[in-house]
Amino acid sequence: MATGAGPVLALFFVLANLLQVEVFVALLRRWCPHLWGAGGREPLTGTRTLARLLGAAAAVGDVLDARRRPDPPVRPVSRG
Fold first, then answer.
1. Of 40, 59, 64, 71, which has the fewest CB atoms closer than 10 Å, so is most exposed?
2. Which tens digits make up the pLDDT trace of 50-66?
3. What is the mean pLDDT of the chain?
4. What are the CB-based long-range contacts (under 8 Å, 24+) for 44-49?
5. How many structural domains does the chain have?
């Protein structure tokens, strides 16, 4: 693969991305059911609706972020 990731790791990334989309759509339909794409007929017209849309995106990013930083390496303690 171009990224150097093996097929199993690539599959996990694909599944994580699909899960992120599913959660985002579920939150969007719950918080903004009147919007186009969420089952409604209204366009995005106000800052309150935009804030809800961005809140759904941020929630997905916070909860399901598969690219968290690894723990820093632990240095051995010298006893001397």
1. 71
2. 888 888 888 877 665 64
3. 78
4. none
5. 1
